[in-house]
Amino acid sequence: MQTKTFAEIISDCNVRFQQMMGPRMHEHGRAWVAPRGFEVPIVRMVESIAKYADLHAERYEASIGDDGFTGRYWKDLIQATRGLLNADCGRLDCGTVDHMLCEMQRAAGLGDE
After folding, report:
1. I want to staple 85 with a disulfide (CB 3.0 to 4.6 A). Which of 6, 72, 94, 113 is the partner?
2. In this predicted model, what pLDDT tens digit does every residue of 64-81 receive, in sequence order?
3. Residue 67 near residue 96, CB atoms below 8 Å
4. How far is Cα of residue 96 from the mean position of the Cα atoms in its chain?
């Protein structure tokens, strides 16, 4: 089972990229905390995907990636959300959001494609 919650993975990615990228990431940070327009569904989807995996881990005491049924649909959600990053994402840094999703998928043991 992963050592961090999926919510912590999101937080760590935001902090790490803000430290690396400086001012550009301030816009991303503001978009993450107070999303508007297309930022709203992207932020909510990423948070919801993470929350679902964390709730799964709490309930079943196993990573969602270990669930042969639910895990594959959860991975589909990640892949679909990654696809939407090619459209309008407002002030969000799509590379950072993509990295969050990849980190969650990796942490669940579902590869990093």
Report:
1. 94
2. 999 999 999 999 999 999
3. no
4. 9
